[in-house]
# Entry
Amino acid sequence: MTDDDVAELCRRLAADQPGDDLADTTDATDVAMRRAVGIARSLLPLASDEAVAALAEAGVAHLHGLGPLQRFLADPSVDEIMVNNGGDVWIERHGQLALAGRLGPDVTSRLIERILDPLGRRLDRLSPVVDARLPDGSRVCAVIPPIAVDGACLTLRRFAVRRRLLAEFAGERVAMLLNDLVDRRCNVVISGATSSGKTSLLNVLMSRVGPTERIITLEDTAELRLDATHVLRLETRPRTVDGTPAITLADLVRASLRLRPDRLVIGEVRGSEVIEMLQALNTGHDGSFTTCHANGPADALRRVQSLVVQHSDGWPMDAVREQICSSIDAIIHVERTANGARRVSGVIELAVPGTDRQHRPLVVDGSVIASPERGRR
# Structure
């Protein structure tokens, strides 16, 4: 199979069924695949069935998928696909990065256009950065010149195909402690660096919630796939070029309180929504979870404090700390190790407001050193 074979197959397919839409239905793609197999057989009459199928898949990927990136999206072991400087393709598999090839000139730009066209998102010199998601939940971030100095950049963070287990993040004793935090209906912040496993751990812990509890998830880009019975998912909306106003995470927090939640799950707190979140957690919405970027549990607490100070109307620091400690019971920190594994490295329990108690470490370096005392059940 050569590039010329792929190009000829694509030309024949497009002649009968033009289009370049990621939103094509599964049936349309299946029809195209059957036609592609027939064309591939005519192009390679002496080739094996495997070679014919490979040519057909490559042609359909170029017309209906993401072309040379489609094979990585189809590989369940690939967690993230990154295209740097307009062409270099890197993939993350089992927590390890590897260079997987290079795209031809202008291919990255065409792939970005193909992704964004059915999503109605804008990417141009006035708006050179975009966050979006594919229909399967995969997250997309694209940056183009002049912001991307050396060429268009594209990152696809795939929605996890395989459901992770708590044992992958923690040993038995730590897992029991984490389950206890869920059962006690503690309000919890999960902290960690980018791609450390915060969302994956959140998915795992929420699978423990009972079927009678109503969970509302609030996210900038919907990534959570909770293994729970009663889930309502809300997603923010950016302001559009035609003047449609934005719906922020703070707006969603306020709206969610009128939707009768038992637990709130906020994908990530990083702005003014921190005020609405703390007030919600301190007014009966126990057992709620959120995430934030930080280097450790203590750093996560300081980050939440700084967000409150930044977005509150002159709250004194003592009031900020008391509000946080009244609202949040524990902070779980997850990190990615050198071999690519994700693990819970630390947990702290926040001090009870109005007492002389200090914040208590419950897990240090992945080992349990104390049991939680706070709980809202």
Notes: The mean pLDDT is 84. The longest helix spans residues 26-43.
